[in-house]
Amino acid sequence: MKLGVNIDHVATLRQARYASMLDHPNAEPGIVEAASACERAGAHGITVHLRADRRHIQDQDVRRLRDSIVTKLNFEMGNTKEILAIALRLLPDDVCMVPEHRQEITTEGGLDVVKHRKELKPSIQRLQSAGIRVSLFIDPDPDQVEAAAELGVEAVELHTGAFANALKHLQTFEYERLVEASQLGVRSRLQVNAGHGINYVNIAIIRQVPGLRELNIGHAIVSRAIFVGLGHAVRDMLDAMNG
Question: Is 76 one of the annotated active-site residues of the chain?
Answer without folding.
Answer: yes
